[in-house]
Structures are given as structure tokens and as C-alpha cells.
Amino acid sequence: MKEGEENMEPVKVGLLGLGTVGGGTINLLQENAEEIMRRAGRGIEVIHACARDLNKPRICDTEGISLSTDPNEVVDNPDVDVILELIGGEGMARDVMLRAIENGKHIVTANKALIAKHGNEIFAAAEARGVIVAFEAAVAGGIPIIKGLREGLAANRIEWLAGIINGTGNFILTEMRDEDRDFADVLAEAQRLGYAEADPTFDVEGIDAAHKLAIMASIAFGMPLKFDRVYTEGITHVTRDDVTFAEELGYRIKHLGIARRTWNGIELRVHPTLIPERQLIANVDGVMNAVVVKGNMVGPTLYYGAGAGAEPTASAVVADLIDVVRALSCAPESRVPHLGVHPHALADESILAMDEVETAYYLRMQVVDRPGVLADLTRTFADLEISIEAVVQKEPPPGESLVTIILLTRTVQERQMVKAMEMLGKMDAIFGDVTRIRLEYLQ
Ligand SMILES: NC(=O)c1ccc[n+]([C@@H]2O[C@H](COP(=O)([O-])OP(=O)(O)OC[C@H]3O[C@@H](n4cnc5c(N)ncnc54)[C@H](O)[C@@H]3O)[C@@H](O)[C@H]2O)c1
Ligand SMILES: N[C@@H](CCO)C(=O)O
Ligand code: NA
């Protein structure tokens, strides 16, 4: 080998997981090999991979790759330079990731659950060992939002961000609106297409979005990961009626993750949200994701693209892999810090309890059709100093006596709205539960 040619050896990769993302990654590395070589400056070769069941049919060709069922065999392989962790979960994945770090391997992962919950420990271990843990694929799949926040917006103080960050949930809400389809049926389709998590309650109950929000918020505000402080509400209680009424009033219902810096702390919340239909993000449909980030200098910026699926997610995995290859020759202290600010500069920001958060509301209730009911309702809100933005009364279908009232409030502290809900619960003119969905203008 001539002098200067040492680094032209292909980088050797160990791949954990041969499912949707792992299979997509092998395919992408094969299909775009030439382009990747031009960008990374070196070839990239998967030499060892693992999966639970080696006889399962795959979306990729594993010829020439050593295969194991035990991830530890891959992370202990002395020839492997970089590990791609694409098995998911928190138990085995955490153990093998820490073992890989101990072995001095760089890691690329798509595992948002692991980073959101154990990222502080994992990054500390990686920094101590001088290795990189890259996680672009973990948030909004193929959209380069980690790079955008951590590098593209590095000059800004981030004021807030809001995102549609679960493709499965957005697919369900979109199909409910456009196709009048059954919730379970749409979820089954998302699972078939490889979008849903191994446990799909993570998608519909907002846990997956909370993982991703926790990661983005840490980078946006330069603070350690605080997944357990994210208020999390899913989409299972959103009805087709709410979707339709919201549209009639000029809003769309989206499942948003919101992180906002306020004068007294940081809001971290995931919940269904009405947003004005004129907002670009209100028109992000199907499995697509989008994140709006407001920086104090740049203003609002929008990132849009596919948040799930084999190829889009592999796009982020391989982009990280190329970054790692480029960084191999640079000193650890010159690398982009894991959370965008240097570990010693991470600030322990206070996170607001949900009852301190301020937002507007959409309320829907069924009331007895008799004089004075609307007056009682508005008096209740006036007593709690909650201003009403709009009230709409729907005529009952023929033969029915209950009237549907939709009420939009102005911005109010959650604590006041909880009191209002208690008072509405005691009014005998209201039948059944009052539906409450938060409303944001995103300005
Ligand atoms: N599917 C997507 O669109 C998508 C998008 C972004 C991020 N992710 C994340 O990527 C990761 C992988 O997701 P996926 O959809 O590819 O999952 P998958 O279920 O399709 O594939 C998982 C693979 O890991 C292997 N595996 C799991 N546990 C193992 C163990 N203990 N030992 C050996 N092999 C094991 C399985 O055999 C399988 O090959 C998850 O963290 C997921 O959250 C997925
Ligand atoms: N289950 C996730 C995969 C991407 O993280 C989603 O539907 O968005
Ligand atoms: Na991403």
C-alpha cells in the first residue's frame, strides 16, 4: 500500500437488525454505493449482521455478510468499525450499545425510545470513550431535523418547535378525514407498510412522538434529555365528528409535539391539536412528517418529508454513517457535540407542569335544547375569566333533542380549563363527556 492510502480501506460496518430499517439500509448502501463513496471518501462495507430469525424472508440481499442471531457477536467483532443499531427496544439495545461503546465502536441508531430514555447515560459513555452516537433516523425518519437543529440553526436561540412526528398517527388522522375509514383498519395498514412501532400503542398513544420531542427539545434548548417530563396524550379519543367540526371552523386536527421556551420554563407536550388550516403544517398528510422551528434570528423554518418507511429511514442512517466516516480522522473534541452544545454547557432548564401551560381550546358537548343553557355556559367561563372566541350550535338531527355546542376559547392557563371542566361536569343540561382538544396558532 502506498503512503497516504491507508484510509482508503472500506469502513467496516456491523448491522444489528435486518427488518424494515436494517434491510432498507443494506439496499441503499448497495444501490447508491458510488454516490456514497464520492461523499464519504471511502467505501462502506457491511461485514457482519444479526437478526432474531436468520431464515425469515428479507427485503435485502445478505450474501457475503456474516450472520448471527446474537448482537453481542457483532459488537465484539474486532474488524467492525461502526455499529448500526436497528433492532429497537430498550433492554437488549441499551446493553449492546454500551458494550459497543466500551469496545470503541462508533454507533448509528434509529432508536428514539433508547435515546430519549437512556441518551444521557449513552452520550456520557460515548464521550468518555471518544466515540460518536449518531441518531438522525430516530427523529422524523428521513428529514434531516437533527442536523437542521444542531448545525443549521446553531446561531439561534430557539423559541419553540412544533412537529407532526409520528407518521402512523398522521396517516390515521388523514384517512379518518379523507376516507372515513375505521381507526383499527388504518392502523393495520400502517403496520403492513412497516411504519408502525413493534408496539403500535407507542404510535397512537403519543409515546413515540414524546420520545422524538424529548430529543429535539434537548437539542433546541441545550439541556439533558427529559423524556419523563413530556406531557403525552394520544389520538384514540379524536372522533370523526371533531375532525369535521374543526374543518368547518377553518382548522385541522394534527397530533403535535410542542416544545416552547416561556418566561417561566419550558413546555414539553404531545397531544391532538387544532391548527389553522392556512398553516403549511396543517396540510401535511398521510405518513409525512413536518417540524416547524422558530429561531430568534431566522424566524420560523419548516422541515418536511417522510418520517417512516424503509428507504427514508435508511437515508438518515446512511447520512449519519457518512458523517461518522468523515469524522473518523478528526479529534473527538472537534466533533459536533451529541446534543449540539458542549456537555459541560448543558443547562438544567425547568420544565413546566401541564397545569401551568397556556393554550386555547376547542370544546364539544351535547346539551339539552332549552332557553338559558348557552347563557349558563358562558357565565361559567366568564366566572373563570376564560374568554370565548366562538360558539357554534349544531341543529339536532330530526327526532333528536340534544344539541351539539362547539366552543373555542382564547388562550387560557390549563389550570383554569381543568376548573371549567369540573364545573361543566356538574351542569345537568350537559349530556355525556365534554370533549376538549387544545388549539394552537403556531405564531
Ligand atoms: N420502521 C420505520 O419506519 C422506522 C423509522 C424510524 C425509526 N425506526 C426505528 O428503527 C428501529 C428498527 O425498526 P424496524 O421497523 O426496522 O423494526 P423491525 O421489527 O422491522 O426489525 C427489527 C430487526 O431487529 C432484529 N432484532 C430485534 N431484537 C433482536 C435481538 N434481541 N437479537 C437479534 N436481533 C434482533 C429483528 O430480528 C429484526 O430483524 C426501531 O428502533 C424503530 O423505532 C423505524
Ligand atoms: N412508528 C414511527 C416510525 C418512525 O419513527 C412512525 O410512525 O412515525
Ligand atoms: Na431525521
Give short descriptive properties of this protein:
single chain, 443 residues, alpha/beta, Rossmann fold, Dihydrodipicolinate Reductase, domain 2, 11-stranded mixed beta sheet, 6-stranded parallel beta sheet, 14 helices, 17 strands, 35% helix, binds L-homoserine, binds sodium ion, amino-acid biosynthesis, methionine biosynthesis, NADP
Proportion in helices: 25-40%
Find the CATH superfamily of the largest domain: NAD(P)-binding Rossmann-like Domain
Bound molecules: nicotinamide-adenine-dinucleotide, L-homoserine, sodium ion
| Class based on secondary structure composition and strand pairing | alpha/beta
Instruction: Please tell me the total number of domains.
Output: 3
Assigned CATH architecture of the largest domain: 3-Layer(aba) Sandwich
Strand content: 25-35%
Number of helices: 14
Largest sheet: 11 strands, mixed
Gross geometry: elongated
Rg of Cα set = 24 Å
Task: Report low-confidence residues grouped into runs of 5 or more.
Answer: 1-5
End-to-end span in angstroms? 59 Å
CATH class of the largest domain: Alpha Beta
Cofactor: a metal cation
InterPro entries: ACT-like_dom_sf, ACT_dom, Asp/hSer_DH_NAD-bd, HDH, HDH_cat, HDH_CS, NAD(P)-bd_dom_sf
GO molecular function: homoserine dehydrogenase activity; metal ion binding; NADP binding
Enzyme class: oxidoreductase
